[in-house]
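ok trying this again, last paste got cut off
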Amino acid sequence: MHELSHRHRMLVLAICCMSLLIVSLDNTVLNVALPEMRREFDASVAGLQWTIDAYTLGMASLLMLAGSTADRIGRRKVFLAGLVTFTAGSLLCSLAPTLGWLIAFRVVQAVGAAMLNPVAMSIITNTFTEPAQRARAIGVWGAVAGISMAAGPLIGGLLVDSIGWRSIFWVNLPIGLAALVLTLRYVPESRAERPRRPDPVGQLLIMALLGSLTYGIIEAPAAGPTSPLIVGCALTAVAALAGLLVYEPRREDPLIDLRFFRSAPFSGANVIAICTFAALTGFLFLNTLYLQEVRGLDALHAGLFMVPLAAPTLFFAPLSGRLVATRGPRLPLVVAGVAMGGSGLMFAVLSAETSTPLLLTGYVLFGVGFGMVNSPVTNTALSGMPRSQAGVAAAIASTSRQTGGALGVAVIGAVLAAGLARGGDFSTAARPGWWIITLCGAAVLGLGLLTSGRWARETAARTAAELEPKDSPEPAAGRRPA
């Protein structure tokens, strides 16, 4: 790819961030619409979980396929296909006549979204080749991701209360079409110098693992943990994981190169992403239901209550990007872990939801933590990886985010449903969920400290040297050419 001007690179970054905006927004914007959808469709808690997890699970299952395919056939081609599919899926969601159709159309959205997130990150990685510039670009990317996800409930509340829940999906249409036109005009084509062969067996194993695990968790409260259905899901998940661990290392071009995980920063970043997004989606799921079902707020006022969550994210996400570029990932990860864990602890121990000042303080703390975590996770996951595998590395990081999001709703929703089924009030039923969020924050803190020191950097350097194609002059992402 020929050298682009600074202005052209900024345009490419802006286009990629437009796609991220709508994809990330749809992770959380639907939360405040859940009570209205529950009334319109007469849905159960499990049905509400599926409107969210159909999207996150679909993305998680397909992200690595999309990333490797883009590296092989062309990132611009796959990015364009993703914009078309996501925009069409958004239109279909706005027209869904039943809950079942809405869930199905959310899967269509997920297919398009899977072609956008990792591919956009791969485009950014190959556009910004100088390490400091790349760190700043990733900081902007992380800021957009954090802001859009944290602002989702506020935007959703405004739309649901003024127009209706279907308008949530209309927002994607003009942004998706604008990004499509701009991509055709400004985004250059790029691909890996050595195309990687498809891995259909690996893809099926990933889908079986994530699908059976999430389905089993969501349906366990209703079916019973020892029912044949749930036991079958557990056995399928274990078999699929074992299959991946045995099959993938034997392939020359695996869908998941397990050598990536020999890098402690890379492994840590992905586990942190799972914990962070599990905490976020669980946090939003519990709070939006509480504010509307228990406090009786409408969607608009429930969204406004979330402003103290979105506002710190707006400030701290770009600050985190600058800190990562100048001081490395450790400080942002420590702040993120302490803030997110502290927020969960306030709800678990102090029942913060029952006191408005404590509730808003908990929101501020969580917003600070979530704002700080995205940039170090993304930068660390890509740092040191060969640019020829940037799509795959970015896809694994994105898969971790979406897997965490799906598991957060599945696990915390299942815990809530089980507590309500036993006849407890909402606060009592939600308390185990708040402890799970607290543990997620503690994991972010511990892993952030463990995987950002000298030992961790040495494992990253060894892994980068092992992964670097011997016949390719490409420098690894995040490393200067010799």
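PB: full thing came through this time. The chain has two domains: 6-199+251-467, 200-250.
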